[in-house]
């Protein structure tokens, strides 16, 4: 009786901190959020209400049409990862810009950009790029900090350029249009890629020993190698151009992309049944993992809403004398700090039920906030101590200390901070393309 009389907001705040404790004790994220959400809902609305929620939320999450996008784009990325397309693409880019100072590192970022627009996976992009480009950069005596920093930064583009798993999860959690999110990520993704390459060029002009120029290729060699770029470029054009032009929906684009990825795999490697089945297996595992986490997050989010914590937080932020832009900057700084200590997916799913109502209250466009959030997640991938992409690279390249890779990533982290500020100042960089799609 005493517990039922407790203020729901107090129950919500306690539940939020209990969730963090369970997370740091090692409980799986989806299970922890579901348990806390169910328990808190039961304390506020009774056991019957909590049981009703437990039966309703998982089904409505799985039955969401938006969620069908996820396995299709994951499958597209898996099959392309097995196709060997990245190796051929890097060869073409290397011959084109390798003769410039830092050209091979810039080529790594450019290839990551193209591969990211096909796969949507930062880990797959960075690990594959390490195998493909690091031997060439070492052959030309590139500094390992620059080489691996460029690969790590280029790999993070995997979640900013569509298709992007965090964008899909954000869409499910907030109801934002997945098509608009995909299209909204195109210009920022290309701009950030260009800023990375410009940063590399400036560094290598200043200190040529960091990234010496590679051998100059003839025009005929460049032309011959560039033929390998038509396939990934065509795939990106069909998928994203179809969404932007309204030819098909995001889910249909995922299906078409998966089909063309299979065609690409067969054309480049033959009918490799093992690669095809491996891609299907990895897709099922990835989709199931994300699905369980999202279901737990939806239960936890409803608990936060019923407890009144979300409205309390919204009222607190709107009472601050900073204006909408100031509050948005505070939220982004919070995400940058959280990215240092939390897994990126956990950070997003734990905080969105609380933060998104605040974002709506202060009038920030959901598409703009989604892209800004994805960039903070990118930053968390290369931020110590838990930078996921850096951890993956350290595991793949045993002879380079992890601290050295983190140091090599720091110039790119600074570029991301500058770019984040640019998007806050000029939101039309994100919103222009989605608006043209609507019209």
Automatic annotation (TrEMBL):
The chain crosses the membrane at residues 33-51, 63-82, 102-125, 146-172, 178-203, 229-247, 253-271, 283-300, 320-342, 354-375, 381-400, 412-433. Residues 16-428 form the TRAP C4-dicarboxylate transport system permease DctM subunit domain. One of its GO terms (molecular function) is transmembrane transporter activity. Its main location: membrane. Pfam families: DctM. It is found in: Cell inner membrane. The keyword Transmembrane applies. InterPro entries: DctM, TRAP_DctM. It comes from the Bacteria. The keyword Disulfide bond does not apply. One of its GO terms (cellular component) is plasma membrane. It is a multi-pass membrane protein. Keywords: Cell inner membrane, Cell membrane, Membrane, Transmembrane, Transmembrane helix. NCBIfam families: dctM (TIGR00786). This is TRAP transporter large permease. It comes from Niallia endozanthoxylica.
């Amino acid at each position: 009786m005493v517990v039922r009389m407790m203020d729901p907001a107090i129950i919500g705040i306690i539940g939020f901190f209990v969730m963090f404790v369970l997370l740091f004790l090692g409980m799986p994220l989806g299970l922890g959020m579901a348990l806390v959400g169910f328990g808190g809902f039961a304390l506020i609305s009774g056991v019957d209400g909590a049981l009703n929620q437990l039966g309703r939320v998982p089904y409505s999450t799985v039955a969401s049409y938006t969620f069908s996008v996820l396995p299709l784009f994951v499958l597209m990325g898996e099959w392309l990862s097995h196709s060997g397309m990245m190796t051929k693409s890097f060869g073409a880019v290397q011959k084109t810009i390798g003769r410039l100072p830092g050209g091979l590192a810039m080529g790594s970022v450019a290839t990551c950009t193209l591969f990211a627009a096909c796969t949507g996976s930062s880990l797959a992009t960075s690990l594959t790029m390490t195998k493909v480009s690091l031997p060439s950069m070492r052959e030309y005596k590139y500094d390992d900090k620059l080489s691996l920093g460029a690969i790590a930064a280029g790999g993070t583009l995997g979640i900013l350029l569509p298709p992007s798993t965090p964008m899909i999860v954000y869409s499910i959690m907030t109801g934002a249009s997945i098509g608009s999110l995909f299209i909204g990520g195109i210009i920022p993704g290309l701009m950030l890629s260009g800023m990375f390459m410009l940063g590399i060029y400036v560094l290598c002009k200043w200190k040529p020993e960091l990234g010496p120029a590679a051998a100059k290729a003839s025009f005929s060699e460049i032309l011959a190698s560039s033929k390998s770029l038509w396939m990934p470029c065509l795939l990106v054009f069909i998928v994203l151009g179809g969404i932007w032009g309204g030819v098909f929906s995001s889910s249909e684009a995922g299906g078409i992309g998966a089909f063309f990825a299979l065609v690409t795999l067969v054309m480049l490697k033959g009918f490799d049944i093992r690669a095809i089945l491996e891609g299907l297996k990895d897709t099922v595992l990835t989709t199931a993992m994300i699905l369980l986490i999202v279901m737990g997050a939806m239960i936890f989010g409803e608990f936060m809403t019923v407890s009144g914590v979300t409205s309390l937080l919204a009222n607190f932020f709107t009472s601050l004398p900073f204006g909408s832009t100031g509050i948005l900057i505070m939220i982004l700084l919070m995400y940058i700090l959280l990215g240092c200590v939390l897994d990126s997916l956990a950070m997003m799913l734990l905080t969105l039920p609380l933060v998104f109502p605040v974002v709506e209250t202060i009038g920030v466009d959901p598409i703009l906030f989604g892209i800004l959030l994805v960039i903070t997640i990118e930053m968390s991938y290369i931020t110590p101590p838990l930078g996921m992409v850096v951890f993956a690279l350290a595991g793949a390249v045993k002879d380079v200390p992890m601290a050295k890779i983190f140091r090599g990533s720091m110039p790119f982290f600074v570029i991301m901070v500058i770019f984040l500020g640019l998007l806050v100042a000029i939101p039309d960089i994100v919103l222009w393309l989605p608006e043209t799609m609507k019209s």
